[in-house]
Amino acid sequence: MSEHGHHHDIGGRSSADDQYLETPPGSSYEHTDANVGVLVKFAFWLIISAIIVHVGLGVMYALLIRQSAERVDTRQYPLAVNQQPRLPIGPRLQQSPANEIYDFRTKEEAELHGYGWMDKDAGTVHIPIEDAMRIMVERGLLSREQDASQPAPPGLMPSDASSGRVMERRR
């Protein structure tokens, strides 16, 4: 480095850093600053090209919508014209689970507390559960005392942890 603050390499030539050391006389800006005119032109052409691209995309989108509207009537698969749409095997997603569980519970409550046919051909009906329990107690069909006093039918024996159920005796 010399006395004047200039950087010189060995050959006596100035280095690239010399242009940053002082502002030239009569100038109010650094000569190494960006060229404003070039930046303005770049921004202008960038905006013009963005407008052209967006207008082109809008026109293309409108054409695609018009083409798809015209093709709605034509079938893509002519052999599938007379076929019913097939659903995949279950389980399928529920459309509205809250409504479905409400309908299910309402149907179950109606069966538990109402009269109706179970199998009309066989003459089997269902009655309200309160009536069924009352009839069972009146007839004494399933009281625990009778169940415990009667031995299991021959050939059947209670299973482990069966709570009264019987299984066939092995030979």
Report the C-alpha radius of gyration, rounded: 46 Å
The ordered H/E elements are: HHEEHHEE
Could you describe the largest sheet, including whether it forms a barrel?
2 strands, antiparallel
Helix content: 40-55%
- Give unreliable regions as ranges: 5-9
| Class based on secondary structure composition and strand pairing | mainly alpha
- Average pLDDT reading: 76
Distance between the termini: 113 Å
Please tally the β strands and state the result: 4
Question: Helix count?
Answer: 4
Our estimate of the beta-strand percent is: 5-15%
Please list the strands of the largest sheet in the order they lie side by side: 1-2
Principal-axes shape call: elongated
Plain-language structure description:
There is one protein chain. With 171 residues, the protein is mostly helical. The chain has a domain of 33 residues. Helix content is 40%, strand content 8%. It has four helices and four strands. A two-stranded antiparallel sheet has the order 1-2. Strands 3-4 form a two-stranded antiparallel ribbon. A hairpin with a 4-residue loop joins β1 and β2. The protein is elongated, with a radius of gyration of 46 Å. The N and C termini lie far apart (113 Å).
